[in-house]
Amino acid sequence: MFRHKPVARSWLSLAFETLELIYHVAVRNLRKSHNNAVLGLVMSIVQSLIMLLVMFFMMQLFGMRRIAVRGDFMLYVMSGVFMFMTHIKAIRAVSAADGPTSTMMMHAPMNPIISIMGAALSSLYQQTLSAGVILFVYHAAWNPVTIDEPVGMLGMYLLSWFTGIGIGMVFLSAKPWQPELVGILVLLYTRANMIASGKMVLANNLAPKRRDLFDWNPLFHTIDQARGFVFLNYTPRYTDYHYAIKYALICILIGLMAEFFTRQHASASWGKRR
User: Fold this and answer.
1) What letter would DSSP give residue 264?
2) 3-state SS, one letter per residue, for 127-171
């Protein structure tokens, strides 16, 4: 008798409602990392800065400066570190997003795709802000930053983030089945990328056998391609950004299928027994 009558809405209003929900999920993820939102962003900047300085002094210590691209050495280090940080931050954020057994999924408008997109956007915002602040301070205080093709460099930056989303979705779909093991695998993968990403080397300078050790990694391709867009004197010959796009799309497809299967079998009691 008092049943609510559903109101027909256009696809445009549904799209705006979904975008608004993704925005709120992204803000929630940002606030979840630290009680103070501003301090949380500052900590993200400090984390990227520490990684940048560690890589700079490590390459100086081991004499790797001579194999870098002719140009601004600090910009060479930044091009690798920022792509690496964006990639692993996306993996960690997406793999830690709310899954099918989360209490957030009990709310009607919420679904795993919105949770994934919100987590991915929050990591992109946080890392982009960190990279932008560090680049501005370096440009204003030390050496003017000159990028040969900014649009191409930005495309590789977003592609590094996109591949992180795909890999993170695979981990997320497996997490309800064995969360402890998946947590260890995420940690191992992100730690292995410290070396496997190839951010300290140039693909053109590597021997074929040595290059084969990095060639499987999409981050290796995006970093090398990004340096081709950043520096006028470097042209990548052995990497291809199309590989990274295909890799990300395959991972997203696998992640979506596995997430659908998990959602059909997941139970809230799984978390209780642990």
Assistant:
1) H
2) HHHHHHHHHHHHHHHCCCCCCCCHHHHHHHHHHHHHHHHHHHHHH
Q: What are the mean pLDDT values of the chain's consecutive 10-residue runs (274 residues total)?
A: 54 74 76 70 81 78 67 83 91 82 66 84 88 87 84 92 93 85 90 84 82 88 90 86 93 89 67 52
**Using CA atoms, how far apart are residues 76 and 79, in angstroms rounded to an integer?**
5
CB contact at 8 A, 99 and 175 = yes
What per-residue confidence (pLDDT) applies to 2?
43
User: Could you give the CA distance from residue 231 to residue 244 in angstroms, rounded to a whole number?
Assistant: 21
Length in residues, the chain: 274
Of 272, 244, 114, 251, the closest CA to residue 179 belongs to 272
Burial of 118 from C-beta contacts in 10 A (0-12 / 13-18 / 19+) = buried
pLDDT at 104: 65
What is d(CA 98, CA 113) in angstroms, rounded to the nearest whole number? 10
CA max distance for the chain? 80
pLDDT of the residue at 166? 92
Structural tokens at position 173: 């779909």
